[in-house]
Amino acid sequence: MTNIEESQDMIRVNGLTRIYGTFTALDNVDLAVRRGEFVTLLGPSGSGKSTLLNLISGMVQATAGTIEIDGHDATNLPTNRRGLGMVFQNYALMPHMTVFENIAFPLQVRRVPRAEIETRVHEVLKLIQLEHVVQRKPKQLSGGQQQRISLARCIVYRPSIILMDEPLGALDKKLREDMQLEIKRLHAELGVTMIYVTHDQEEALAMSDRIVLMRKGRIEQQGAPEALYSRPDTLFPADFLGSSTLSAGGLPAGSRQLDTPHGGLPLPAAREGEPEAGEAVLMVRPESMRLVSEGKEGGWPGLEATLRDSIVLGSYVRHFLDLADGKRVIVQEPSGATRRRPERGAQVRVRWAAEDGRLLPTDPDFKEL
Ligand code: ADP
Ligand code: MG
Fold first, then answer.
1. Position in ligand 1 atom list of the atom nearest CA 52
2. pTM, to two decimals
């Protein structure tokens, strides 16, 4: 018997594995995606994102494990019977067909009546605000317009699941940001279940209900963007999602201070799963740190540092600092925070609240901290 909780899952994979020769591209992955959820597979190149997506789509066959779509076993179902839409980085539009014909094509294949095809093509063109290009050929369109047409061609047959593999990878930054909003809006309007692949952490943070962070064919950690960003469990998400200031040191048993070459760093109150003694790493996000003037504050005096440079980025300022032992630190403050901004070369102090640090286990892949 299935309970209510279970029936909310649109996709479930269990123990999914893909091996090429002796190389394991995807290693025993479990993942459930809720109906209407926007899930992003994020990770460096080669971490298994496309492999997982292609297994869900049926374009790659599993070595082991199962795939369930909308409550049915889909492990051996052909791609065209999985009820999916797919969008890739290369738009794959048919060059000799007009925009209308390109979008109408998946409906013709499904033998939708002519009059309904007319209505639905114009509906989706309106949705992506490209009604005026209906009679053009793909080569008469910009890259951004072509990508929107390939989106339209995907949503026109109303799939309940859309899979996207780095769909914006070929676009420049400004256009990419516009398209991120467009895809988010379409997702909200259509109520479709979305699995989106990217290696761009900012894109993942901006778009997703949930980020699934992949590393070497496995899921390293998953969660809401905010949770993954501010509460990583390991160094991999700490490092991959935005810049952090990381410091390694020794943690004596029972101590609430990390002994580092730059001095003792205060630690947040202990939490479960945290290293208790031995070598450990403290992560602090740049926006949790502040520059303070000497001697002002009580308690921990902060770290002495030399200001190398400050850059103003609209509403915030990024300070680049060197600690006494040469370690680089980035501090990010709101533009209004320091009324008199210290000059380049100034001696300053860097402070943060102990609770804004995160104590993590060491990792052989992150030696130089
Ligand atoms: P990502 O999309 O995260 O960049 P992929 O899922 O494409 O990574 O690939 C994961 C790993 O599997 C890579 O090391 C890649 O070289 C390997 N791989 C993918 N497809 C094949 C294949 N058809 N044959 C051999 N190795 C493959
Ligand atoms: Mg890929």
1. 6
2. 0.91
